[in-house]
């Protein structure tokens, strides 16, 4: 009877751990928005991992014999954890996971500001260079026109 009690308590702990792992996944989804396909894939991977974890625990602790009290213990642990610790854990995990996200957003915003600023300077430089080029072309045209005008004036004076 002592062995079965310890197995039951381990099953309760395993149920609580599985719910906390899923709560960590929920907190990550709150911090970073996911596409519905990514959410479905995350859930699939989680439940496959949970199934493998449950199978390995049952196989190692009870020689692979399935007993209903193990599943009841996991269910009880999940329900207790969901009703007591889970809301606080989700909020805390969202805050902790949100810190790197805020840092990345802040850094990205700063880097993009520098890139945009550089583009503005390049644009201003290009406009300034274009204006210089236009002014040079206009001076050349004017000098050609002045030269032609002087030629005509010189020819009219010679006549």
Keywords:
single chain; 159 residues; mainly alpha; rod-shaped
Report on this structure.
By secondary structure, this protein is mainly α. The protein has a domain at 2-98. It has four helices and no strands. It has helices at 2-31, 36-62, 68-84, 86-158. Helix 1 runs antiparallel to helix 2 (36-62) and helix 1 (2-31) packs parallel to helix 4 (86-158). The longest helix is centred in the last third of the chain and has 73 residues, at 86-158.
List the helices and strands and how they pair.
Layout (H helix, E strand, L loop, with lengths): L1 H30 L4 H27 L5 H17 L1 H73 L1
Helix pairs in contact: 1-2, 1-3, 1-4
* Termini gap: 134 Å
The shape is: rod-shaped
Question: Treating each run of at least 4 consecutive H or I residues as one helix, how many helices?
Answer: 4
Please give the largest β-sheet. Answer: none
Low-confidence stretches: none
Strand/helix succession: HHHH
Helix fraction, binned, reads over 70%
User: pLDDT average, as an integer?
Assistant: 81
Residue fraction in strands:
under 5%
By DSSP, the count of extended strands is: 0
Radius of gyration using CA atoms only: 37 Å
Structural class: mainly alpha
